[in-house]
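Data availability (excerpt). The following record was deposited with the supplementary files.
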Amino acid sequence: MNERGSLELGKTIDDFIEELNEKKGINNDSLSDAKELATLTKSPVYFGCNENQSEEKIRSCLNDSFKKHVAQKMDIETYAEVLPTGLHKTYCFFKISIKGKVTDIKAYGHYKRVEEEVVRIINLVPQLKPGEVDGKKVNVTYALPILFSIE
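Predicted structure:
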């Protein structure tokens, strides 16, 4: 990060999904066959997370790992000169497939360049161990709100 910008990532909560769905022209049909994280009996496991912990700790590690990945890969300095000062929000939705791959990545925000960068960054996520419901691997939806500030 530089002196003009900082990055803060939020958590995956239903409020962000509802807020996005209320925005005009946004369609998440490609995610409709996937389960929500809260409905799983086993959450997806990010590389480096301990799958032998409680579900709460696995989900926390997953969320923290996504945050860390985005923070490491996103170069705020690139946008500091072209975006207005202030807080910027981009919502990223994707699916974690039954094979543990991140697919169907969609990003929504006010700036196309930022949306494209978020999609590029999420495409770099390493393969995960897929989520399960009652021992069966399932596709999982994931929402990642990304907030960053240009000063």
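Summary of structural features: The beta strands are 5-9, 35-36, 86-96, 102-109, 131-133, 136-138, 140-150.
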